[in-house]
Amino acid sequence: MTNGPDGLRCMLMRGGTSKGAYVLAEDLPAEEEARAELLLRVMGSPDPRQIDGLGGAHPLTSKVAVVSASDDPAADVDYLFLQVGVERPEVSDRQNCGNLLAGVGPFAVERGLVAAGDPETSVRIRMRNTGDLATATFATPDGRVAYDGATEISGVPGTAAPVVIEFRQSDRPLLPTGRVRDDLDGTPVTCVDNGMPTVLIAASALDVVGDEDPAELEKDRRLAGRLREIRLAAGELMGLGDVSGTTVPKLSLLAPPAHGGAVMTRTFIPVRCHTSIGVLGAASVAAGLRVAGGLGEEIAQLPVGQGLLRIEHPTGFLDVESVIEDGTAGGAPVARRTAVVRTARKIFDGTVFPRPA
C-alpha cells in the first residue's frame, strides 16, 4: 500500500450508468478484510445517505474498481469489481459490473498501466470476478484519453466519447441449468449467463405490466417477496448456491417493447429496481432473447437475422450486438459475439480521505 495513513489515491469516474471509485490494487491493503474495512470508510457505509463518504446513497453509485497490471498473456490489466453496501457493512466481489468496466481502459492509460496509442487505444481486460475477458477501445488523440464526444447513452445527461466493449466468449455455459426454460414454484423462467447470471421472467407472470416506474415497483411488497423466492431458487438451480447475501443472479422482468426496441425490461439488484440496466445484464438478456424456445420468444420483437438488439429500460435503451449459435453437433447454444457501446468520464483524480476507523 503506497498511500499514507490519511489518504488513498483515487479517481472517481462515471462508467456507463454507474459511478465509482477507481483505485490501483497496489494502493489497497492486500488482506481482504482490511481492504473491505477501508473501502466501507471511503464510501461512507453503512449509512442510507453515505453522507460521510464518496457513495451516492444507491447501489449504482457505491462501487469500486480495483485495477492492476495482468499476468495473463491474454490481458493487459486485471479489473476486480467490488460492490459496497449502502446501508449494510458489506463489500462483495461475487459479480461483475459492465458499467464500471467502461472506465477501466481509460483509467489504465491515465495510470500508465497501458501506453496510449494515437488516435485510439484498445485495452484487454481480465475481469477477476469471473475470469471473463473483454476489450475496450476508446479515443486517445495525441496519446491522451478523450472524454468529450458526441455519443449519448440513456440514463446519462449530455454526450461523451464512445467506449466500445467487446466481450470474448466465456467458457461457462450460456444456459446454466442446461435448459431453455425452468419452472420456479409455478413461474416459468429462462436462466442465462452471458457475463452476468440473469433470470428472465415475464412481467405478466408476476402481475405487473413491466413499464412501471422503478419506485412504484420497489413499493410493492408482494412483488419483492416473490422476487426474493425466485432469486433464491434460481441461485441454487444455476449452481450459485445460497445467494441470500449476494446481488446475483439479477432478475429481469420482460414485457413487449414500447419504443421500437426488442423488449422492455425492469431489472432488480436484488430488490432495488435498476433505473436503467447493467451492461452485462443487458448482454445476458439479449443472448437469452436469441435462444430458441426461451421465455423471450413470445414477448420480444426480434429483428430479422443476428446482430443489434435494443433493450428498453426505465430511462431509455441499451443497444447490444448479440450473435448466438448452436453448439457443435446440435449442442447447447453459445454466444459467439457480444459488444456494446458505453461512455465514461473522469470526475476527479486525487486523494480521498476515509472516515476515521
The shape is globular
Q: Return the average pLDDT rounded to an integer.
A: 94
> What is the N-to-C order of secondary-structure elements (H for helix, E for strand)?
EEHEEEHEEEEEEHHEEHEEE
**Beta-strand percent range:** 25-35%
Q: Whole-number radius of gyration? A: 20 Å
The first-to-last residue Cα distance is: 17 Å
Strand line-up across the major sheet: 1-2-3-4-6-7-8-16
Question: Based on DSSP secondary structure assignment, what is the total number of beta strands?
Answer: 16
The biggest sheet amounts to: 8 strands, mixed, barrel
Helicity level, as a percent range?
A: 10-25%
Q: Stretches where pLDDT falls below 50 for ≥5 residues? A: none
Please tally the helical runs, counting DSSP H or I stretches of 4 or more residues: 5
InterPro entries: OMA_tautomer-like, PrpF-like
Protein name: 4-oxalomesaconate tautomerase
Family: Belongs to the PrpF family.
Keywords: Isomerase
Protein model, in words:
By secondary structure, the protein is an alpha+beta fold. It has 5 helices and 16 strands. It has helices at residues 32-43, 98-110, 214-218, 221-237, 279-290, and strands at 8-15, 18-24, 63-69, 77-84, 91-92, 120-127, 133-139, 162-167, 182-184, 187-193, 197-202, 250-255, 263-268, 307-313, 316-325, 334-352. A hairpin with a 5-residue loop joins strand 6 and strand 7 (133-139).
Throw out a few tags for this protein.
globular, OMA_tautomer-like, 357 residues, alpha+beta, single chain, eight-stranded mixed β-barrel
